[in-house]
Design brief:
seven-stranded mixed β-sheet; alpha+beta; 826 residues; 37% helix
Length: 826
């Protein structure tokens, strides 16, 4: 019996797959297409088994679909720009490209060891010039359409390092590098106008029937549609107005203050000189607070008076304007009208700063006294102190109030979204340069397409402060205006890495085309992606941005579909010792170590066996040992029978004699059915593997209890061929090795997926209860196909039955199919 030399077997077959270009395809669609895509990784180091999970799931789907007759596009690449590479450059004095390429090489080797069936000829990395040339092209297309623009935005600023910090670089309000307190600073930055697409992004979620509902809910909440009114409050002693958005225009008569978000550009504009020092101190303190924690419902409400007042347009009252920590710039206009009696956060703020509380919506069951209120009344009620609307039901009055505002030209009906425009500027080196030039004569000038890519210079030095070296690279920074030829300056910001990943699924179709980002005809054949697989942590931003970019390209005529991903699967995490795997926790499980110890097929099979793949799962060393025993049992079964069955020919039918043989034939067909339905259904690969284990146990039992000369060789050949086909997507190396040993040529993946024979799946016999007047008196085993007349005759001939029916009148015989026979006698 040949030993299971998994190391040698896996190396041999991986080389054969590579040499034969087994998984490489053309863009000619000569059979049904299937685009199977797994979210590409950020190459920050080596992969652990948690990362590997989605690649294994994706590979199983891709292999299965090939066997089902599809032409499968299954590519791979790297989301290779980003801050970690730049941090590594500073810390290790190594160029980020060198660090990134080294990690890419490591990940590629790890993936290949797993036997993943990628078309490596389509491999991409977003840091390649041939890729980011087209990321810059995409920017230009949005710019031409008016969807890319520049405005002032608040950023985290380290005054000592003189640089912008990402949120993750701010620790407890301080710069992670130097420990200096971080401040907010307004910088001119580039944005994509995703808000123009908010309604389409929201409505089209209904089309995504193949997406998990919880992911769609997350996107709906992020977009955050609200219907209400925009109202203009005149600034006291000024021609300026302050616009707010409210979903409760029925409470306008209860406004007793206004509040601005700390990040709002209006703060500086509206703060009086005598209040400036106090406001700046407040802004400094707020900048140290986490934005989402400070705006949480339970957080303490804090603010400061700007010294400026506004006029309430519905009653002419003069009301103070504050800056408040619980206001978000990202929602509405970044300013709110404070209605303490009817909004809990406004109520808490007003009580703290002695601001009046005015009831304008009364509780019909218990009239409100503002002096006695301990919380806001936010329910519908009867309008009071509200001029012409007194006595109306508040929920019915909302539309009337909006009509009133429009008639008076002090407001208008409005729909607002929580979704903000996409800030794409990064004050970093390791990203795609924004293709914009600034000319004193011509202003903002986009780089002509013929001059793309705007290349990152490689001869750069990284400042320990983290400032982008592009700021000090004269050759990069200084250029000529493409319009007038005058001296000009390049934009030194680079693009958010989400821009790189927002279109990569299109580039895989034509990854090496230097004349265009993709061929429209080819992309329209392959897209949308049939199955997208990745972590739920990308449920909002990456997926939303990809949907936005696809819609823009659709509007521009580059693609004929509006949604990039037809079906989405979000896999759960793999935990170790109850925690997410990380080097700092010392609980990382290396796929390389597992492959060395058990083989790639065992690791693949165990990852798929851990539980429903959408759920989180705990890594268990004993679990992978158990799966390894299963893999070896399969190997040993084939070693026992190969010599007997190698030259045997069988078709789609096979005869059996014993009950044990009948059970094995039934079980292989049930297994094919189960594995097929689990892959086609909810990806419950764990239950598919359980059924395979059941079959292997039955086979092993047959081979060890029946004498060798009594084996049904045709049945064993019938089972052996079919089992390897369903095993192949799970354990492809072993499947191909045993397929060869069966005397077969080629690869299992080139074979059609097996079908099941329903006639072979029936029970050989079933046991029925026999009742006499409702009481069980006997049992009988019969064929499941027996007809009612033959069943009645068999039952009436039985001795036990005769004891109760002789010399009695049989009034009726009732048959419940597959369960019982009830004889009614008198």
């Amino acid at each position: 019996m040949r030993d299971y030399d998994y190391k040698n077997i896996e190396q041999i077959w991986q080389k054969k797959w590579q040499d034969s270009k087994l998984f490489e395809i053309t863009n000619e669609i000569d059979k049904p297409k299937y685009y199977a895509l797994v979210m590409f990784p950020y190459p920050s180091g080596t992969l652990h088994v948690g990362h590997v999970k989605n690649y294994v799931i994706g590979d199983l789907v891709a292999r299965y679909k090939r066997m089902k007759g599809y032409k499968v596009l299954h590519p791979f690449g790297y989301d290779a720009f980003g801050l970690p590479a730049e941090n590594a450059a500073i810390e290790n004095k190594i160029h980020p490209e060198i660090w990134t390429r080294k990690n890419i090489d490591t990940i590629r080797k790890q993936i290949k060891k797993l036997g993943i069936s990628y078309d490596w000829s389509r491999e991409i990395a977003t840091c390649d010039e041939e890729y980011y040339k087209w990321t810059q092209w995409l920017f230009l297309k949005l710019y031409e359409k008016g969807l890319a623009y520049k405005k002032k935005g608040a950023v985290n600023w380290c005054p000592k390092c003189m640089t912008v910090l990402a949120n993750e670089q701010v620790v407890d309000g301080k710069c992670e590098r130097c420990g200096t307190e971080v401040t907010l600073k307004l910088l001119e930055q580039w944005y994509f106008k995703i808000t123009d697409y908010a309604e389409r992004l929201l409505n089209d979620l209904e089309k995504l029937e193949g997406w998990p509902e919880h992911v769609k809910t997350m996107q709906r909440n992020w977009i955050g549609k609200s219907e209400g009114a925009e109202v203009d409050f005149k600034i006291y002693d000024s021609d300026e107005t302050l616009r707010v958005f409210t979903t409760r225009p029925d409470t306008l008569w209860g406004v007793t203050f206004m509040a601005l978000a700390p990040e709002s550009p209006l703060v500086e504009k509206l703060t009086k000189s005598e209040n400036k020092e106090e406001v700046e101190e407040f802004l400094k303190r707020v900048s140290l607070q986490d934005k989402f924690k400070r705006t949480a419902t339970e957080a303490e409400k804090e603010g400061v008076f700007t010294g400026t007042y506004a006029i309430n347009p519905v009653n002419g009252e003069k009301i103070p304007i504050f800056v408040a920590n619980y206001i978000l710039l990202e929602y509405g206009t970044g300013a709110i009208m404070g209605v303490p009696a009817h909004d809990q956060r406004d109520f808490e703020f007003a009580r703290k700063y002695g601001i009046p509380v005015r009831v304008v919506i009364d509780n019909p069951d218990s009239p409100l006294n503002p002096e006695e209120m301990t919380e806001a009344y936010a329910e519908p009620g009867i309008m009071v102190n509200s001029g012409p609307f007194n006595g109306m039901k508040s929920d019915e009055a909302i539309n009337k109030v909006i009509e009133f505002l429009e008639e008076k030209r002090i407001g208008k009906r409005s729909v607002q979204y929580k979704l903000r425009d996409w800030l794409i500027s990064r004050q970093r080196y390791w990203g795609a340069p924004i293709p914009i030039i600034y000319c004193e004569k011509c202003g903002v000038v986009p780089v002509p397409e013929k001059d793309l890519p705007v290349k990152l210079p490689r001869d750069v030095e990284f400042n320990p402060t983290g400032q982008s070296p592009l700021l000090y690279h004269d050759e990069f920074k200084h250029t000529k205006c493409p319009k007038c030829g005058s001296d000009a300056l390049r934009e030194t910001d680079t693009m958010d890495t989400f821009v790189d990943s927002s279109w990569y699924y299109l580039r895989y179709v034509n990854p090496h085309d230097d004349s265009k980002p993709f061929d429209t005809e080819d992309v329209n054949k392959w897209l949308p992606v049939d199955q997208y697989i990745g972590g739920v942590e990308h449920a909002i931003l990456h997926l939303l941005y990809s949907r936005f970019i696809t819609k823009v390209l659709y509007d521009l005529g580059y693609v004929d579909f509006e949604e990039p991903f037809s079906n989405l699967f979000t896999q759960g995490m793999i935990y170790k010792d109850g925690a997410k795997m990380s080097k700092s926790k010392g609980n990382v499980v290396s796929p390389d170590d597992m492959i060395e110890k058990y083989g790639a097929d065992t690791l693949r099979m165990y990852i798929l066996f851990m539980g429903p793949p959408e759920k989180d799962a705990e890594w268990n060393d004993q679990g992978i040992e158990g799966v390894n025993r299963f893999i070896r049992r399969i190997w040993n079964i084939y070693q026992m029978i190969l010599g007997k069955i190698k030259d045997v020919k069988v078709g789609d039918e096979v005869e059996v004699e014993s009950d044990q043989e009948y059970e094995i034939r039934k079980l292989i067909n049930l297994t094919i059915q189960k594995v097929t339905s689990d892959i086609e259904g909810d990806f419950h690969f764990n239950t598919a593997i359980s059924r395979m284990m059941e079959l292997s146990n039955e086979l092993n039992k047959y081979l060890t209890t029946v004498p060798e000369d009594k084996w049904n060789i045709e049945l064993l050949r019938y089972v052996a061929e079919r089992f390897l086909r369903i095993l192949s997507p799970f354990a492809p190396h072993m499947a191909d090795e045993l397929w060869k040993e069966l005397g077969k040529e080629g690869f299992v993946i080139q074979q059609p997926w097996p079908t099941f024979n329903e006639d072979y799946m029936k029970e050989k016999s079933i046991e029925l209860a026999i009742q006499i007047n409702g009481k069980i008196r006997d049992r009988i085993s019969v064929s499941p196909d027996i007809d009612d007349e033959n069943l009645k005759q068999l039952v009436l001939k039985r001795e036990k039955v005769k004891q109760y029916t002789d010399k009695k009148e049989i009034k009726k015989i009732l048959i419940v199919k597959g369960r019982l026979v009830n004889i009614i006698v008198k």
